[in-house]
Here is the input.
Amino acid sequence: MSISNFPPAKIATLSEAQKAGTTCARCGRVPLSPQSLDGADLVVCADEHARVCTDSVFWLTPPCPWWCGSRWHSDHDRGSDRHHMSEWTGNVPLVLEDGNEMGSGLSYQPEYATVHLVQGVRETEPRIWCGKGETNQGWYMTPAETRELAATLSSAADMTERQAAPLAAAKAC
Here is the structure.
């Protein structure tokens, strides 16, 4: 490959390691098989490694789901950390729970339930995480389980608003 095929604007933005020929001038990673650019001290990844020689995260082959907040993806992610997480988070204040002190002399904040989507990069569908605030105290549910829980919670809320039970459900106290 010739340096004349390399965009001049890109050359101006190279890091010191890229200028020294230590890392790839295209992607910034240490090349698995370096290929020299004719007429320069620069190296690039060999053509057979083009699929990982990109500005994006090398392990991310399919595009992210539409709901993914991709700012969390990194080349440094270990296999177990490679997942899509929604930028959207649903939060519901829990006024019957004890509040959390936000710091010495600061006000209390109500505890809250939080919900977001998570999908491992090798998984075929997202899971819904539901738990307590920013803790790891919660659980994962399938979309079907989430809908069932939502219906069950709605039924319980509806029951609290009825003045009298239907005759069939009335019980002697």
Remarks:
- Residues 70-169 form one domain.
- The chain has two domains: 3-49, 70-169.
